[in-house]
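Write out the 3D structure for:
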Amino acid sequence: MSEAATGRDEEDEIVTVNFKATQSFLDEIDEAWQGRGFNSRSEFIRYTLRDAVENPTFDRDELIALLAAESDSREGTTMDAEQARETFGTSDE
């Protein structure tokens, strides 16, 4: 992947953007881009941000619910399908 992989015209000006992250998160980012065949951290971040903009999967509320469910799963406080149907008033049909 390269600058062209950003999907913009060649005439677009390249602008440097700075952001803050914890060292542990930066370590995770580095593991991710290296493990997925990207040439650099910047290339991976551009690709990831473009993908998020072009293919928004979750809104904030959905993401919060997903994170809460992940936390419940890790803590072993999940419910089975029957409990969920009873709690949320849905059927299995």
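The CA atoms of residues 55 and 71 lie 25 Å apart.
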